[in-house]
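User: I'm writing a short report section on ligand binding and want a predicted complex to refer to. Could you take this sequence and adenosine-5'-diphosphate and write out the structure as tokens? A short remark afterwards would be nice.
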Amino acid sequence: MARDQSSRNGKASSKAPRQNPRTLKRKRNEDDIATLKQRVADLDPKAPIESFTELPLSEATRLGLSASHFKTLTDIQSRAISHALRGRDILGAAKTGSGKTLAFLVPILENLYRKQWTEYDGLGALILSPTRELAIQIFEVLRKIGRHHTFSAGLVIGGKSLQEERERLGRMNILVCTPGRMLQHMDQTAAFETDNIQMLVLDEADRIMDMGFQSTVDAIVEHLPKERQTMLFSATQTKKVSDLARLSLQDPEYISVHEAATSATPSTLQQHYVVTPLPDKLDTLWSFLRSSLKSKIIVFFSSSKEVRFVYEAFRHMQPGIPLLHLHGRQKQGARVDITHKFSTSKNSCLFATDVVARGLDFPAVDWVIQLDCPEDSDTYIHRVGRTARYERDGRAVLFLEPSEEIGMLSRLEQKKIPIERINIRANKQQSIKHQLQNMCFKDPQLKYLGQKAFTSYVKSIHIQKDKEVFDVKALPLEEFAASLGLPGAPRIKFIKGEDTKSRKNAPRHLQLVSSDDEDEDEDGEGEDGNTESKKKKSKEPEVRTKYDRMFERRNQDVFTEHYTKLIYEDTEAGNSSKTGNATADADEDFLAVKRRYDVEEEVDDPTTKDSDTGMQVKKVAGGVLAVQIAGKDPLLIDSNRREKLLQSRKKLLKYKSPGKKLVYDDDGNAHEIYELEDEDDFKKRGDAEAQRAKFLELETERARLADVRDKEIAKQKKREKKEQRRERARAEREAAAEEEGAGPVAVLAPFEGEEGGEDDIPDGEMEDVKIQPPSKKQKKFRRDDEEEASNGPRKNTKITFNEPAEVQTLEDLEAFASGLLG
Ligand code: ADP
Ligand code: MG
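Assistant: Sure. The structure tokens for the complex follow:
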């Protein structure tokens, strides 16, 4: 409306001395913003709002929303957006799939727009997500609805080099990120200024506020200005006063749209449970999959090892439905691929950990199966929330071990979750135990995965906090092991010691638990940027059972009776010929002590000099060579690997002790940097402990000051640069404005022929969204949905959203930009 007015004014004044179109446009924008501000101020936050057009939104947001086919508001949107537009802090709670994402993205765009936020104002809004996948998804929605804005937005989720991200961070207006990575940048990237942030959003807030992210989030908040708008969203909202205090929320508006609802889950969701003894779980899952080949299914497990094992095992047995698996231990690229594949697939089954439990909006999921009982009812709500999203229906089945039934059902009841028991049809149940045993026997890799899966499952039960639901002693472990195809239950050493209690209190962070696994954490969830817990990953020695040892031998000539029965083919022939090797291998496994030679013992060939390396080489007992390296024990060349060392001086240097750094005094005498002073002198100065403390204190202070100084200098430089850039831009703008009938609007980067960037899921890197005014030429490259938007009323001032296709690096972009602007 306001715009129409101003354009009419523009026409009316066309007789007056000719005005520069740019000046006019700027004026129009200012009018626009002033009216918007007024409308927001007049907004009655209590009035129910049905359609986005009723809200005081900028043209750009309105176009973005309608191009993405968002017309009417959901309940949470209708109640939260008005408050958020007015700058209020918000605690938003609404069921899964009810549209919380837009409830914070729209206000972010709008509030920054009304503040006329530009590149030079730096970071204006920060959105935290507990997982990378969710961050990517939020970012995608932001790109869609923000395509007509001129903000730059970035995704900071790790998985790419810090340096690359660093370079672009400084110019971002809106960032979507995982807490760990964000903190890393805040601590380490000097050019990254966070003191101007206007809005902080925590999606899945209760998860971000819980123990796993606690210290990270606290540290992030320390970097942010106190005066800001903070918004928290989740289906299971935190109301803890302590949490709110940590974020210094100011008089937050608590918006809970489904508080009075009869159930905590979407009404379109059918929820069931089956009681299955642990050893039958996989049979039941298999039978279920075989009978649901035309469905889209997510199956939740409690640890990434189980996911891997079941995925590998089922894959080999070819159930007839495409299988996918996703957990936090996968590489970032794979995670993105799999998320994308599952999103776009019509029927497939995704085995996953709780890394996908929260927030992810996979389209049209039919079934959510929880093979392992969730740790609490909130996790249950989020897991089942992957189906029945936004007015669609869906079904969920929870598998309960008989020992878990009573406890878990009462937990669900407390949370108003309607769930009904169903039974499995016995005639449809197939057993795959035999097959699994056979496969595990033939494939030691699979058996190894099975053992890992077993251990991590049992551990996950052991460390659960809710002992009324989870009782490890009630589990039939031997049968469970057999059902995974293992010859017996691997022995598990449970964690003892004084810190057991605190560990139990952190059930989501199974990775903190001392593990008998060398490389992986247990849980798929906390990995995102939770650097701290990673560091703590304990390195206790691996617990190995006799089974482990037995099956680590490559050629097994001693079988348990149980196993001998399982072998149907190629046993006799295979065994007899392999026996010889087997003993040799076994020897190697069991004899841990390496061959040892006494260097002094017998030197028949006095020292020679190795021609290649210049090192002194001796021959010692057993014909073994020993290389004499300065200041060290001789290095024995007793293996092929070490023999290779002899060929390279560089490699040998590794074994040398590091050199000493010397300083020279005025007389030219060399001294070590830290020379020991005379003991008496030292004692004269007081107690050693006191001196040590004082020294430490001084040094710490010195380092701190140096750090502060460095950061200040870096920031100052950055500011100066920015100021210069701003000056330049201003000068250029004015110069352009003076030019008569200024030609087409400058385009920062012409991405002709660019296509489909929109749907590309970024490869875990920080992505830029540059949003800029188009030239006329660009029109023909507009995508379909943009086409639609262009039917809107504001054709000639339309702003197109673009993304670099040809232009790949920042340098390219800058070159382009300066070329065009210059
Ligand atoms: P939540 O965060 O509450 O779980 P999302 O924000 O992920 O929910 O939205 C769930 C689904 O609903 C998404 O697919 C989204 O596109 C759709 N959606 C959200 N708001 C609207 C709306 N106003 N109109 C139509 N669809 C919507
Ligand atoms: Mg969400």
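A remark for your report: The longest strand covers residues 269-275. DSSP finds 30 helices and 22 strands in the chain.
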